[in-house]
């Protein structure tokens, strides 16, 4: 384990940014934290988490796929991608760090999504352990330890120092680049922090939330539950839950006529929208109840059924905090528990 004095944090960021792009959580004028590219004077946010997840770095909200230029009967196909520059994302919390493994199962399975793959290969994740979990957090329900998050490097901020542990070759290379600012140390301070935060986690309102009743084995019982109509009745279909979710991976592909060619791009989509999955013959999910059901069935039943029991949620709490009608996966799961028996 290595230690950095917080007084040298600015120098650490400067050393990292000198070799590759660096992104970290920064607060805006309204106090909302978002990942921004580091620039001299940027201050690391003290917020528990960012409003939008770190998913954007690997699966951006909009992305150019291919361009076409038409000259008479000739069509020129242009790949708009340039060589992806190496980058570091600093301050990723445990929930978002776990979300990458879920996205990997989707985008790195055959056929591999090369756009996503390139970003994953060029990105280095520095995760930051949580010290002040909020009442909306329930990541431990999915086996995530926010006191020791995944990442190429795991970091702990304690007292006047930042502690680092490299977990991958990319992480080792990053710490080697800043070796002159670091010093070897023991893990006593980190273990003390972990014990303190673990005690807080046990007292959170959602500490007892469990998904053990769900999974592919209850597909029919949950799908046919009569409770979906009542649960979905107030849903606005706004898609907020899907846009702040770190694991949602649905997208649409569109073509735009630029006047001198065609630009094909993809953008995030939401299963909560009325035109989601619309095909030539129409839409297989005509009601909000069916669309609402699709979202939560995917998280709690379909995904674990196809991924060795891993759920499509990481308990980040963003949907609890942002839904305008206060509907979320915890309420849905608890309402449906009786139908899983």
UniProtKB/TrEMBL annotation:
Molecular function per GO: iron-sulfur cluster binding; metal ion binding
InterPro entries: 4Fe4S_Fe-S-bd, 4Fe4S_Fe_S_CS
Pfam families: Fer4_22 (PF17179)
4Fe-4S ferredoxin-type domain segment(s): 226-256, 302-335
Keyword list, A-Z: Iron, Iron-sulfur, Metal-binding
PANTHER family linked: ANAEROBIC SULFITE REDUCTASE SUBUNIT A
Protein name: 4Fe-4S dicluster domain-containing protein
């Amino acid at each position: 384990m290595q230690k950095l004095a917080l007084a040298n944090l600015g120098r650490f960021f400067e050393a990292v940014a000198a070799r590759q792009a660096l992104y970290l959580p920064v607060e805006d004028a309204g106090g909302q934290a978002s990942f921004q590219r580091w620039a001299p004077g940027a201050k690391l946010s003290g917020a528990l988490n960012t409003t939008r997840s770190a998913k954007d770095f690997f699966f951006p909200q909009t992305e150019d796929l291919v361009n076409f230029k038409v000259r008479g009967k000739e069509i020129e196909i242009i790949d708009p991608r340039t060589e992806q520059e190496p980058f570091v994302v600093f301050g990723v919390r445990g929930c978002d760090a776990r979300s990458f493994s879920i996205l990997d199962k989707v985008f790195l399975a055959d056929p591999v999504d090369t756009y996503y793959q390139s970003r994953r290969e060029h990105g280095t994740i520095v995760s930051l352990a949580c010290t002040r979990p909020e009442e909306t957090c329930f990541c431990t329900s999915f086996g995530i330890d926010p006191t020791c998050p995944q990442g190429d490097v795991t970091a702990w901020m304690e007292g006047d120092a930042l502690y680092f542990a490299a977990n991958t070759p990319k992480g080792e290379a990053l710490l080697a680049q800043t070796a002159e600012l670091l010093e070897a140390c023991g893990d006593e301070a980190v273990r003390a922090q972990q014990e303190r935060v673990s005690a807080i986690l046990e007292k959170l309102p959602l500490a007892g939330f469990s998904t053990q009743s769900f999974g592919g084995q209850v597909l029919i019982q949950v799908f046919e539950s009569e409770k979906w109509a009542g649960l979905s009745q107030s849903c606005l279909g706004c898609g907020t839950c899907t846009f702040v979710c770190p694991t949602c991976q649905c997208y649409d592909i569109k073509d735009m006529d630029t006047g001198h060619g065609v630009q094909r791009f993809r953008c995030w989509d939401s299963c909560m929208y009325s035109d989601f999955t619309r095909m030539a013959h129409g839409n297989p999910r005509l009601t909000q109840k069916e669309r609402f059901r699709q979202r939560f069935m995917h998280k709690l039943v379909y995904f674990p059924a196809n991924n060795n029991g891993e759920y499509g949620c990481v308990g980040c709490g963003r949907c609890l905090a942002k839904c305008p009608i206060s509907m979320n996966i915890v309420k849905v799961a608890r309402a449906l528990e009786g139908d899983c028996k």
